[in-house]
Design goal:
By secondary structure, the protein is an alpha/beta fold. Helix content is about 55%, strand content about 20%. The chain is built from 3 helices and 6 strands; from the N terminus they run αβαβαββββ. It has a 6-stranded mixed sheet, with helices on one face. The N and C termini lie far apart (about 95 Å).
Amino acid sequence: MADLTAALLAVELILLVATLVLLIQARRESSGREKLLEQMAHTARIVSRQEYFNAVHFVMQSARNSIKGSITGSVPSTPEQNDQVQAIIDRISIAEKREVKVQYILPKSPDRLVVANRYREAGADIRLHGGIIVSDLRYTVIDNAYTVLGLPSSTGENQPTREGYVTHLKH
């Protein structure tokens, strides 16, 4: 009987150790899954943002008469954001050479002047509006035919555009 009790205790100890090992592995796997989901969400935001700017670039290249928009004009804080601003500046210059009228309205704020001046130097007509404190919706209208809407990740804050939509207006 003592041998049976000792054997059962040994089996119970082995099962307890196995259970603890599985719990530790499950916690590690859960932590790894959370990190993976965070990275996937980050990648999705980057792709969505890139799709928005690709849409803006595409419609700006196809503009024949006018490009009008309301944008945040926030100073780029990352190299990727600076590249996007420079790409828009390049599109403005190209559009101006094709005699496309480019007009943007931005919030009237000292921190918006950097981008406003860069766009103006590229040939855009820039207006600063004191009533636009925070621009939660960014839009660009091309030839009164296409509209590209840009949405931030959250409202009421100076957030970069996270996703965008292109609409085609039929005449």
